[in-house]
Design a protein that fits this description.
The protein is mainly alpha-helical and 507 residues long. 82% of the residues lie in helices and 0% in strands. About 2% of the residues have low confidence.
Length: 507
């Protein structure tokens, strides 16, 4: 597990570097130099590209992780496995390009009333999708080779820096017009995919020469059925994270999409640890399931779920206790403060997703993977129905509530099947301690804001007097309380070991 830990730590560092760049971009550039409608346009274009790419890859990124153990052979350069990961997605792209063209009239009609700007640039979705498609495929190949840091750096840092430059060229320097802005977004993702491709070549462990002998009839049958499953699954599981963007855009307009996008970005920070840790442990889980090593799979899942629960909960807490200060820092923050409740609702959704996401990985790499298709169909159907019912009455809050309710239902069903079919329980008693810790910290924050605790009311800082100082003091105080409680309550031996290591270095 040494390389797993090292790659995970490096990946997490890269993620947070990307978050820092994204924070500066979102809070000091985008909201200052772009209108709400322009923010909404960029969000819808990128989400549409992601959605199209998800369909077109025909499940290639998941298949890479599931079937790579069958091809794995350093001496044979993995039997030309990389060749097949290039061919399948391009076939999928042409298939879904035809479908998209057939549905173009319906799509344009749906968005023309409230989001006609998106209709004007709809054609750019297709090249954007191609670049996103192969960037994802190249990343998945790097993951199974246990080399996630460079592709992650490209995605989390490189793409964000590229987009930041495009925003400045358009909104600040006025060097390019809106057409150039949209083309610049496409070029950014093209360069990202190109860098990932040359990085894979530099590893010297891939081959373009296919080995047909490796394909036995049972393996071909398994691959074919799994690909069909993933294709059907993509229609649901990949729609969900993007569904609210399209519903808000079509039903409320791109200006509201811009507000929702900013709120969603704030909440998405909660999932940062989930991105790196799950990416690096998925090959480990896949191999454990393939070898029927249930004990090892459960040990990995319990550890991942616990530490993601702890980290995501603390990030969620940090965001929420400082939410007013965040909107004060935000240029034109009064325009985006309407998304405050969206941050809270989506924050809970991101917290549960980070904590329980590993259960989805376990099920997808087992022989019972078809169960997840049933649940994702249920998930998407529920989300669509709730969006239709709630958005007219509650607006953006309705979209957020539909997301939260749907995901809670989805994961409850998922946990039950993983427990019954695989005899794997990803939850542990230590997570009860985490929930108690977070509840206690929220209570402390409530007492601070309301002036209930004498210690806090005597401090010369108040939320109305100086929000930034208040946010800093609260954050430091609650962080110290968290570290102390975690250590003496023995929530995680890994965390305790890290604290002891840091204390020894300081002493």
């Amino acid at each position: 597990m040494g390389i797993v830990i090292k790659q995970s730590i490096k990946g997490t560092i890269v993620n947070y570097l990307g978050v820092a760049i994204g924070f500066v971009t979102t809070f000091f550039i985008v909201t200052k130099y772009l209108t709400q409608e322009e923010i909404g346009l960029s969000r819808v274009l990128i989400d549409a590209g992601v959605l199209f790419a998800s369909f077109a890859q025909l499940g290639t990124s998941s298949s890479i992780i599931r079937f790579f153990p069958y091809f794995k052979d350093e001496n044979e350069k993995h039997h030309g496995f990389f060749f097949w990961t290039l061919i399948v997605p391009i076939v999928g792209f042409f298939l879904f390009f035809i479908v998209a063209k057939c549905l173009e009239g319906t799509i344009i009609h749906t968005f023309s009333k409230n989001s006609d700007l998106f209709v004007n640039y709809y054609r750019f979705v297709f090249p954007l999708a191609v670049f996103m498609l192969y960037q994802t495929v190249f990343e998945a190949n790097a993951n199974v080779l246990m080399r996630i840091v460079v592709p992650k750096f490209v995605r989390e840092v490189g793409v964000r820096v590229g987009l930041l430059l495009i925003y400045l060229l358009y909104g600040y320097w006025h060097v390019i017009d809106l057409d150039g802005f949209v083309m610049g977004v496409c070029i950014t993702y093209f360069l990202a995919a190109l860098i990932d491709f040359f990085y894979l070549l530099s590893l010297g462990r891939i081959s373009f020469k296919p080995d047909f002998k490796i394909f036995t009839k049972p393996l071909l049958k398994d691959i074919g059925f799994y690909t069909l499953f993933l294709l059907m699954n993509a229609v649901t599981v990949n729609v969900m994270p993007l569904l609210n963007t399209f519903f808000v855009s079509a039903g409320m307009g791109l200006s509201f999409t811009g507000i929702y996008a900013i709120a969603n970005y704030i909440a998405t920070v909660i999932e940062v640890p989930n991105r790196s840790l799950n990416a690096i442990v998925q090959p480990e889980i896949s191999e454990a399931i393939k070898n029927n090593d249930i004990d090892r799979a459960e040990t990995i899942c319990k550890s991942v779920s616990l530490h993601l629960m702890l980290s995501s909960a603390l990030i969620f807490l940090f965001i929420w206790i400082n939410i007013d200060a965040l909107f004060m820092l935000l240029p034109n923050g009064e325009l985006y403060e309407a998304g405050k409740s969206v941050v809270l609702i989506l924050g809970f959704a991101k917290f549960f997703n980070s904590t329980l996401f590993v259960s989805s990985s376990v099920l997808n790499y087992s022989k019972y993977y078809y169960w997840s298709l049933i649940f994702t169909i249920m998930l998407t159907t529920m989300a669509v129905v709730l969006n239709v019912l709630l958005i007219p009455h509650y607006g953006m809050d309705g979209a957020s509530l539909s997301h939260l309710i749907s995901y809670l239902t989805f994961y409850l069903c998922l946990l039950l099947v993983v427990r019954i079919k695989l005899n794997i329980n990803i939850l542990s008693e230590a997570q009860i301690k985490v929930l108690a810790l977070i509840a206690g910290l929220l209570l402390l924050n409530f007492g601070w804001v309301k002036g209930i605790f004498p210690l806090f009311t005597k401090l010369p800082f108040s939320l109305t007097a100086n929000a930034l100082i208040d946010a800093l003091v609260k954050s430091v105080f609650l962080m110290v309380v968290t570290v102390v409680v975690c250590y003496f309550w023995h929530i995680s031996e890994d965390v305790n070991r890290l604290i002891r290591k840091m204390l020894r270095k300081e002493s």
